[in-house]
Write a structure and sequence with these properties.
single chain, 745 residues, alpha+beta, Jelly Rolls, 8-stranded antiparallel β-sheet, 24 helices, binds flavin-adenine dinucleotide
Length: 745
Amino acid sequence: MEAGETVIVEGAPSHALGIVESGTVSIHVGELEVADRPEGTWFGELGLLMGGRASATVRAREPSRMAWFDGEALDAFILAHPGAAGRMLFRISEQLASRIRTADLRSNEAPPAILGALWSGVARTVVRVFSPASKPVETPSAAELSGVPGWPVRLTAPLAPSVRVARFADGELVVREGETTALSDSVWLVADGFGLVVRGGESVRMLGRGDWFGLISWAIGTERSASVRAAGTLRALAIPFGAVAEIERSHPEVYVALLRRFAAQLATDAALYNARLAPRPVPAAPRPVERVTLTSYGGWQSCEAERRIVHDVDQARAALAETRGHLVTLRSAGLSFDQQALGTDVVLGLSDLDTIRLDSATGQVRVGAAARWGDIVLALDGTGLMPPVVVSASDATVGGTLSANSLSRFTPIWGKEGKSIRSLQLLSADGQVRVCSRQENPALFHAAVAGWGSMGIVLGATYQLKSVPVPTRVCTRVERRPDLEGLSQLLLPSAGADETVYALIAFSGGAPRVLLSRARYSPDAADTMLPHRPASPMRVPVEWAINRFAGAGQAFWNFAYDYYVREDRPYVDELSGYTFFQDGNVRSRDTAARIGLDFRLVQQAFVIPETIPGLLERFILEAEARLRIAGFHTALVDSLYLPPDEPFALSSTRDGGGYAVTLTYEGNLDFPKLVLELERLSADLALEGGRVHLVKNVFASPDVMCDSYANGLAQWRRAKAEWDPEGRFGSAFLRRVFGEGAGQR
Ligand SMILES: Cc1cc2nc3c(=O)[nH]c(=O)nc-3n(C[C@H](O)[C@H](O)[C@H](O)COP(=O)(O)OP(=O)(O)OC[C@H]3O[C@@H](n4cnc5c(N)ncnc54)[C@H](O)[C@@H]3O)c2cc1C
């Protein structure tokens, strides 16, 4: 390679190990140069071992010569020379382990410093001390061993006599941070259940079936870098370090197979760390018109469409004229879980319309439709004024959330987003820009808020702000409740209160337990809770595990219920951390895409009418049980009170207040079956007067949806006939949810 030439591009598929024969290559994460690899070293091990994507860009610093070793060559090498291959994999594991260890030690520092350590820290500290093992362990049966993923017979047979199985109760300690390891100590494999990796007071990673832990101490002989506790009941297999060393001598081919697994685990850990800290890639500016494939946030639905990006109202008007006869779907940040921002014809996005203007005299803010909520909160922080309702993802835009009439954890006391909208500007199908408010064009106003882009293009809006203390933080008190008894009463905020209330429900063996939170704005000194620490480099590994393993979400929240959340003191969170607590989820999705891992999500929210006593509690119990019996682990159930809304046509609380219950399912599950189950649940709830909330996924038949939204739908159809008679605006979502041609006359 010539100096400056690119060898590997970050994010591209990468399945080969590069060995620098002469010269030097440099490693870059985003725009940041993080390390050098001189002659005699290697690069590309993360991609090779994980079989995924390159987590960094590699460039020749000077004229360099390199040799490549791909997956097939590695397999052939392993077969032909297991002893040498074992030594090579050990060196790779050792390096990965010491890099992770060095990065861990610096985890309180700025992301570039941690990244630098992750790529270049190669301190070798082989200090092994002897001490006796403590937990009584037993030998596993053959059946027990063969049930573990990634544990084939050729591995189990020679290793079986050395393997021990240990069972841990919820919260029980498996290994302790800081403990000095001994040769009698072990590497561990999760056979069943979940383990939570805890460093300091913080949960940093979740382990599920087939994950290894204890590898850093095994590879570099230091003290344990973190504690591992059982989250729920955990069954783990232990292989003493001494047995690993013994197997190297007696069965080199088994040793090398084992090391390949160890190295792959370390590579995955390092890649997750890396992708989480890497500066977010700046996407190339989209072309004004191009054919693209777009995907829903949940990852289950996608479409091909002609995407047009416009920069001002004249361009938007011109785009409408040029696409006459076509259905226009509006799309902003594309964070919709379902098909709300997907269409198969023309998909239109706004760029630049992102101004944020505060009018202190009126306590209002005027914002462009493309303004991101993260920027709005940042701009208002310190002014003593905040929008009453802000969604939990900072990338979401005004145009997108206004069209969803979003809700937040403050909705129980302050209503949905629409309540604070004073007016909006809308470009209608006839090319006119109209100001809509409760006084001016009220029918259009009430159809455009929660209108899913069906009434025209929202160009901007004015919101009434609430007074908040400065500095602006959020104080939360958490209470544990052993069951659902009285939940509907507990979720009702006191009249005129400035404290909101919401619940998170964890299921342990079918039994619900409630984490009830009461939160209010406060100027107190920060003392944060993990889910509200977006800057924590560890959010991604936890979120990723929850997405990957069925049952991990509930295990995590049960662990939080039993050990992690404290009732004896309030938490005080920074404004952005508290508000945008789902940014970790967005980051995990981006991270997974970056390193070639799958990330799938289904969230469906239901509205339970407040007028039917006991229905909330019964619905939560039945929903979880039905889905469990159908084979689905509900990763999370959360609930809060929704006060009655104004007559926004498609608002889920247009005709009365209720409780939102959101069910979350993560990972690559049986999607058609889950859809069927959610459709059945929606139909049964509709019989009792409940309905499906339109934000998030909506799996319910058009008949059920048309019935439960009958009044609002009639109002929306009248507005549609008046303001969009040709049916220019719509999406795959509206057509599916309310039936073909939902918006047409
Ligand atoms: C991580 C995460 C956290 C979330 N948290 C919350 C939450 O706390 N509360 C909540 O209620 N929801 C939440 N949501 C859902 C989210 O608020 C909605 O999906 C929202 O609509 C996304 O906004 P967006 O800018 O991504 O819009 P998109 O997904 O691009 O579009 C959303 C809808 O708005 C329409 N639209 C977009 N721009 C315009 C425009 N300029 N004019 C007219 N119509 C337009 C689109 O056609 C589409 O129907 C969350 C979603 C995610 C992924």
